[in-house]
Design goal:
Elements: E1 2-8, H1 14-26, E2 30-36, H2 44-51, H3 65-70, E3 77-80, H4 84-87, E4 98-101, H5 114-138
Parallel strand pairs: 1-2, 1-3, 3-4
Helix pairs in contact: 1-5, 2-5
Length: 140
């Protein structure tokens, strides 16, 4: 079983979606977690777009990548779902972790109604699903 950690800045969207997809598609071949550099709250629009594909992440809590590091957790893969400058802020986990960078677009910083966010998160959800599916087929 491969241990995988997905992380992004807030653990509120991209890393949560990636964790959910790998759990669904990868089945029992993976032990998956997600975390953030500066954990926030899972975004309601992200919960909504994942529900559209019958995945419920409404009970998911965010967590800190640094707390996982301090606890001594090990992973086979640590996958950043943010830009390279934020990916470099992640601590180097002990063991043989392979660090991968999967840069997905971040939502615009301007305030938007939830309904205006949905198209963006649908696009990112589908891109992440495709990336997870292809990664499983080619790598682990």
């Amino acid at each position: 079983m491969k241990r995988v950690l997905f992380f992004c800045v807030h653990n509120s969207a991209r890393s949560q979606m990636a964790e959910a997809w790998l759990n669904q598609i990868g089945g029992n071949d993976f032990e998956v977690e997600s975390a953030g550099l500066e954990p926030g709250l899972v975004k309601p629009a992200v919960i909504a777009v994942m529900r559209e594909v019958d995945i419920d992440i409404s009970k998911k809590q965010t967590q800190s990548v640094f707390n996982l590091f301090k606890s001594g957790r090990t992973f086979d893969y640590v996958i950043a779902l943010c830009d390279e400058s934020n990916a470099k802020r992640c601590p180097a986990f002990p063991g043989a972790a392979t660090l991968l960078l999967w840069d997905f677009p971040e939502r615009s910083k301007q305030r938007q109604m939830e309904t205006e966010q949905l198209p963006h998160y649908r696009m990112v959800r589908n891109l992440i699903k495709d990336r997870v599916t292809n990664w499983i087929a080619e790598k682990p």
